[in-house]
Design brief:
- The protein contains seven helices and 15 strands.
- It has about 270 residues and is an alpha+beta fold.
- It is about 40% helix and about 25% strand.
- The N and C termini lie far apart (about 45 Å).
- It has two domains: about 5-150, Fructose-1,6-Bisphosphatase, Chain A, domain 1 (2-Layer Sandwich); about 155-265, D-Maltodextrin-Binding Protein, domain 2, CATH 3.40.190.80.
- It has helices spanning about 5-35, 55-70, 100-105, 170-185, 195-205, 220-230, 260-265, and strands spanning about 45, 50, 75, 80, 90-95, 110-115, 120-130, 135-140, 145, 150, 160-165, 190, 210-215, 235, 250-255.
- Helix 1 (about 5-35) packs antiparallel against helix 2.
């Protein structure tokens, strides 16, 4: 093993410990506030997305905890954007993925943290605080939920469960509505759970067979994309090529239903 690879591996081992601790700390804070959240506290961003003071508080906590351990790293997060730093390692953070679920007291919301090295995902974390499910993956080390190895389902045929999500652009919404129409009118189970990160975790651990997202933001999926891959699933773009952070359509599957999903998307 070259010295460079050794150094990256050492960073990833530390990164996992730091990120898990930060996610648990943020999760504990959010669970406390979740129970008493008042929907009158909701604000709207320019794209009409929901944001709360707890999105901002969680983001500050996560970035501060991680930056304390890795001051030389760059950060990209949903609420504050790109921090302007240039570095081989870049953390990609969604402090509450599923804010709307959080505001209506639906417990399926999550914290998503990804780490990229030269724009390749090398560490991913999804934490669903209310369910106390901590999903983690490191490059070439497999995927885990609460330290137990996970893998996608082997289900095909009529028993498959699909999920979908979309960004806020008109184009992304149009593609999503066309996709759900094709699936539903074909009598295929397809649903939107309200947290892209949780949906990716569910593909990784075999609860669902696929998740498609149109109009991807990196922070929505950086934690989950690596999770699916390391679990043994597949993550591709609309052309069937390996998904990269710059791609705007993400298709995550157990591998067995990928051709079916791609054929549906081709029709759109």
């Amino acid at each position: 093993m070259s010295k460079k690879i050794e150094n990256v591996e050492n960073v990833l081992k530390r990164a996992e410990k730091v990120a898990v601790a930060a996610a648990k700390k943020s999760g504990a804070m959010l669970v406390r506030e979740f129970a008493r959240f008042d929907r009158s506290q909701i604000n709207r961003k320019q794209n009409n997305e929901t944001v709360t003071k707890w999105d901002l508080a969680s983001e500050r906590l996560l970035i501060n905890e991680i930056r304390r351990a890795f001051p030389e790293h760059a950060f990209l997060s949903e609420e504050s954007g790109n921090d302007g730093q240039t570095a081989p390692f870049r953390w990609i953070i969604d402090p509450i993925d599923g804010t709307t679920n959080f505001t209506i007291h639906n417990p399926l919301w999550s914290i998503s943290i990804g780490l990229a090295y030269n724009d390749e995902l090398v560490f991913g974390l999804i934490y669903i605080p209310y369910l106390k499910e901590m999903y983690t993956a490191r490059h070439l080390h497999g995927a885990f939920c609460n330290n137990k190895k996970i893998s996608p389902s082997i289900i095909v045929g009529q028993s498959v469960n699909h999920a979908f999500c979309h960004g806020k652009t008109d184009q992304a919404i149009l593609f999503a509505t066309k996709y759900i129409k094709v699936q539903k009118t074909s009598h295929v189970d397809c649903r939107q759970l309200g947290s892209a990160a949780a949906e990716l975790a569910y593909v990784a651990c075999g609860r669902m067979e696929s998740m498609v997202m149109f109009g991807v933001n990196a922070w929505d999926v950086a934690g989950g994309a690596l999770l699916v891959r390391e679990a043994g699933g597949r993550v591709v773009n609309e052309l069937g090529q390996p998904w990269r952070l710059a791609d705007k359509t993400l298709i995550a599957t157990n591998g067995l239903v990928e051709a079916e999903i791609l054929s549906v998307i081709k029709k759109l």
